[in-house]
């Protein structure tokens, strides 16, 4: 049996569309900006922040790599990372670091 047996004319017929209540149809936003354009702007802002952070990190990393020896950078970078992760862990454990406040 077809899943569309409940609709004698099919799910996309004019008679079926007429049965849909007007309140259930999507309405455009009150600002006049389509919802899709708003979502695109939000995604673009998030990606832009991500790219800016990546660019600044790479510039700083390049400057550090030019000034110090490879051995020093390869030993110091994981140590700094471990210390920072420990600080974030302690702050999160005692409630001083709440990411929900940034949203």
Characterize the structure shown.
Keywords: Membrane, Transmembrane, Transmembrane helix. The chain crosses the membrane at residues 73-94. With 103 residues, the protein is mainly alpha-helical. Among the domains are: 36-67; 69-103. Helix content is 60%, strand content 0%. It is built from three helices and no strands. The protein has helices at 14-18, 35-67, 70-93. The protein is flat and about 60 Å long. It starts with 13 loop residues before the first helix and ends in a 10-residue tail after the last helix.
Helix proportion: 55-70%
What's the Cα radius of gyration? 27 Å
Overall pLDDT confidence? 75
Low-confidence stretches: none
Broad structural category: mainly alpha
- Write down the overall geometry: flat
Distance between the termini: 49 Å
Counting copies of identical and different chains, the oligomeric state is single chain
Number of helices: 3
β-strand number: 0
Approximate strand percentage: under 5%
Major sheet attributes: none
The ordered H/E elements are HHH
Lay out the secondary structure.
Elements (H helix, E strand, L loop, with lengths): L13 H5 L16 H33 L2 H24 L10
What's the short version?
With 103 residues, this protein is an all-alpha fold. It contains three helices and no strands. Among the domains are: 32 residues; 35 residues.
List keywords for this structure.
single chain, 103 residues, transmembrane helix, mainly alpha, 3 helices
């Amino acid at each position: 049996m077809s899943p569309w047996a409940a609709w004698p004319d099919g799910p996309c017929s004019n008679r079926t569309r007429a049965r849909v209540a007007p309140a259930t149809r999507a309405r455009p936003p009150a600002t006049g900006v389509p919802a899709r354009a708003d979502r695109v702007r939000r995604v673009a802002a998030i990606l832009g922040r991500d790219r800016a952070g990546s660019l600044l990190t790479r510039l700083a990393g390049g400057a550090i790599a030019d000034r110090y020896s490879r051995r020093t950078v390869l030993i110091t970078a994981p140590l700094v990372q471990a210390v920072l992760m420990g600080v974030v862990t302690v702050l999160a454990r005692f409630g001083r670091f709440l990411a929900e406040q940034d949203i």
